[in-house]
């Protein structure tokens, strides 16, 4: 069962990056971090005020808010599945699967964000996926 939790952790971790990328359009990174990382709320909002980024609050669009909130939910889900997988599985195997989020993120970035997917990207992605399976 730990493998399911580890895979779900990787999927949600990859969604975090994709959703944050969409939500960050025209938003200060400190403000975006505060919105999507409720767990570290005090630190994030502290950085917002230190950087003077609070002035950007009024310029947030509905899309910014929706995708930053979704990114925060994906982050929380990833952490929940990751810690559950760690609790019942071998750390080396859980971490190997969790790091497959890089492969998933590359694929999702190509599909959802239309980022370039070159032959070099394909080879690197295949090699990373192979390495993850070797580690498992």
TrEMBL record:
An example Gene Ontology CC term for this record: membrane
Domain of life: Bacteria
Boundaries of every EamA domain copy: 1-135
Pfam families, sorted: EamA
Protein name listed in UniProt: EamA family transporter
Membrane-spanning residues: 30-53, 65-82, 117-135
Record keywords: Membrane, Transmembrane, Transmembrane helix
tRNA processing found in the keyword field: no
